[in-house]
Amino acid sequence: MTTTAPDQQTPRTASSGSPYETIIGFSRAIRRGPHIWLAGTGPLAPQGNTACPGDGYGQARRCLTILVEALHAHDARAEDVVRTRLLVTDMTRWEEIARAHGEVFGRIRPAATLVGVAALARPDWLVEIEAEAFIDRA
């Protein structure tokens, strides 16, 4: 994870190294003041292939790992997340995906939305997750 470090008034960005960041033109995460917005995150393995093909739970865990790493790049943690959105291509598999989300956020309980979508960037992606965080500590 790489970050920019501008002054307090300029947004600070983080990159996970996903090839989609340069193709589409976005940052994995952007922080301005106490707010952090985390882009929709698919289950990319470090090698660039899809992590855990056919496994909704494994793919959700990979998405969440990437998101938590992006939070750490902004001096934040999972406990700072206030909102998540889970985009799921096969709603019959929502429970395995939700289980992974619950393992990370079950005690935190951010506002969350789980919605079925027709497709994601890669046909073998079963889930994409985005989040918002707010750092409220001295």
Detailed description of the structure:
The model has no long low-confidence stretch (mean pLDDT 88). 27% of the residues lie in helices and 28% in strands. The protein is globular. The protein has helices at residues 19-25, 56-73, 94-105; strands at residues 2-3, 12-15, 29-32, 35-41, 81-88, 111-116, 127-134. By secondary structure, the chain is an alpha+beta fold. α2 runs parallel beside α3 (94-105). It is built from three helices and seven strands. A seven-stranded mixed beta sheet has the order 1-2-3-4-7-5-6, covered by helices on one side.
Summary, kept brief:
The protein is 27% helix and 28% strand.
Could you give the topology of this structure?
Layout: E1 2-3, E2 12-15, H1 19-25, E3 29-32, E4 35-41, H2 56-73, E5 81-88, H3 94-105, E6 111-116, E7 127-134
Parallel strand pairs: 5-6
Antiparallel strand pairs: 1-2, 2-3, 3-4, 4-7, 5-7
Helix pairs in contact: 2-3
